[in-house]
Amino acid sequence: MKKGLCSYLLVPLVEKFIANSKSGKRLQLTGKRLSVGTIENYHYLLKHLNGFEKNKGIQIRLKVFNKLNQTTLLVEKNYWKRFYRNFLNYLYQQKIFDNYAGMLIKILRTVFRYIEEEMLISVGPFYKSFHVPKEEIQIITLSPERLRFLINDDLFNSSLTKEQKLIKDIFILGCTVALRFSDLIKIRAQDISHFDGKHYLSVTAIKTGKITKVQLPEYAISIINCYQSKSQRSIFPGISLWWFNKSLQGLFEVANWTEIIGRYRSVRGKAIKILQPDRKKEFRFCDSVSSHLMRRTAITTMLMNGVPQLVVKKISGHAGDSKSFYRYVDLAQSFMDTEVTRHFEKLISG
Q1: Is residue 349 domain-resident?
Q2: Which of 79, 101, 129 is the last residue of a domain?
């Protein structure tokens, strides 16, 4: 690990950070183990650090802060300024967007804090000046009108194949209970309870460990009854996330939800229009959907229908002060038009 008497190589320290996170020596603030997805992101940082070192022909070193004198202090400060600038340039050369670059820099800052607080190596304050790039990700949801169409239109349902009906039913249930795909696809018969004439779904989220309990409407019970079988452990047959996303896009194309929606991403704070990589055409609505649409649609439609924010957060598993909650919210234009029209009518009539 040591490079010299008062210095270390950064990459081995990052490797130890990842190993401790994976083994459970490093935990979340709540005391729970870190998720597989979180540790996977740590590996992405390690991969890019290794790529950066190879590209520059260097090894990133860390000098012990409390061993520096006035002269070497300034040298070290400039070293980390150059590192941050060059590393960020390297990342953007990999054709990434601000959101991904920000995730990596945020993890790197976490690594430095861990090195100082847990490995007891004085790293100094230089990493605190690593700016975290941010990006407002374009959010889309399914309008209440289109969700009602999927739930109620028997003619459309009868035109679908068996596989398309499965995707539609999973999607409808996801838009009802606000679960992530990983939790939704693992729903079991014992997760459904019946009390006082009502049906409830209780699930412990894989990502957060939080327990969600939500009342189910009749159409959701009909979907569950349609697939429930004693021969399979989960209610729905096992399908991959990739297959679900691809099939969902195909289902929405069959529904003729093919209007063009410009897709933009941010690179160094500048909005860049994104085209479909295979056809070099603009994205249609049906091309832009994925499993995330279910959770966003559930949260948005509940808020639009007057469900109190506190109740919505309880169902979705978000903390009361969660900042990420609002990233899921996209109020439909028709709803906003109605509310603004009502405002203008009140304004004019007094």
Answers
A1: no
A2: 129
Burial of 191 (0-12, 13-18, 19+ CB in 10 A): middle
Strands (E) in 19-178, as ranges, are 61-63
> What's the one-letter identity of residue 270?
K
DSSP-based three-state secondary structure for 231:
coil
How far apart are alpha carbons 167 and 294 in whole angstroms?
Answer: 12
pLDDT number for residue 3: 45
Distance CA 310, CA 330 (A): 17
Q: Are residues 174 and 288 in the same domain?
A: yes
The pLDDT of residue 276: 84
Pair (205, 87) in one structural domain: no
Cα 6 to Cα 2, 21, 307, distances in angstroms: 8, 26, 58
Pairing assessment for the beta strands 7-9 and 61-63 based on DSSP bridges:
antiparallel
Residues of the chain with pLDDT under 50: 1-4
The single-letter DSSP state of residue 233 is: S
What's the pTM? 0.76
Specify whether 243 is located in the same domain as 125.
no
Indicate if 209 and 319 belong to the same structural domain.
yes
From CA 157, how far away is CA 225, in angstroms rounded? 17
Domain count, the chain: 2
**The pair of three-digit structure tokens given for residue 91, joined into one six-digit string:** 């990342």
Asked if 127 and 63 touch (Cβ cutoff 8 Å), the reply is: no
CA dihedral for 172, 177, 183, 188, sign (positive or negative): negative
Domain assignment present for residue 201? The answer is: yes
φ, ψ of residue 31 in degrees (nearest 5):
90, 0
Is the domain of 158 the same as that of 110? no
At 4 the pLDDT is: 46
Domain of residue 256 covers 144-341
CATH number at residue 123: 1.10.150
- Integer Cα distance of 175 and 188 in angstroms: 18
C-alpha distances in Å from residue 225, one per residue of 4, 169, 188, 228: 66, 11, 11, 5
